[in-house]
Specification:
This protein is 29% helix and 21% strand. It has four helices and four strands; from the N terminus they run ααααββββ. The N and C termini lie far apart (97 Å).
Length: 170
């Protein structure tokens, strides 16, 4: 009988020594509190990281092979895109090889019969940002006007993929 009483006494001693829960509500924060650090600004208004500098290139430098590959990808995608006479499943499957995963999902519901372009007619131009080798924009001329093709890649040796084909504005 002494053991259970001793255990009970120890348990009561532990409970009585433990701090009580704080039931006082925390003070409400004012809606007008000021941040302790300055807000990060955009590239034209100041540095994103205080004291930091933007590297000359973001990972990949442009070379002629990259430019040619980007243009070839844009032209190949546009050639597969501009086939409104094709059955929808065949059209989507052919186009998918050029597309990013997001673009593949986006264009899977397109009815090719609604595409006004039927063939490429000439000029192709590439617009690049020398500081960013991960993306480019190409202009591909078709019989329906000049389409803009957004291209992306994940690394220098990664293939270019089309993220968006934008029809002419007029």
């Amino acid at each position: 009988m002494k053991k259970p009483l001793a255990l009970l006494a120890v348990a009561l001693l532990c409970v009585s020594c433990a701090p009580a829960a704080n039931t006082t509500p925390a003070p409400a924060e004012s809606a007008s509190t000021t941040p302790t650090a300055p807000v990060s600004l955009s590239a034209n208004s100041g540095p994103q990281a205080p004291g930091g500098t933007v590297p000359a290139t973001i990972g990949i430098a442009w070379d002629e092979a990259s430019k040619t590959s980007a243009l070839d990808t844009a032209e190949g995608a546009m050639a597969d895109f501009a086939r409104p006479h094709l059955e929808a499943t065949q059209w989507a499957n052919d186009l998918a090889r050029w597309l990013t995963p997001q673009a593949t999902a986006d264009y899977s519901a397109v009815d090719p019969a609604n595409i006004p372009a039927t063939r490429l007619t000439g000029a192709r131009e590439l617009s690049i940002d020398e500081a960013n080798g991960y993306g480019a924009t190409a202009a591909i001329t078709t019989d329906a006007g000049k389409y803009t093709v957004q291209l992306l890649r994940t690394g220098k040796d990664a293939p270019w993929k089309v993220n968006r084909l934008t029809p002419p504005t007029s």
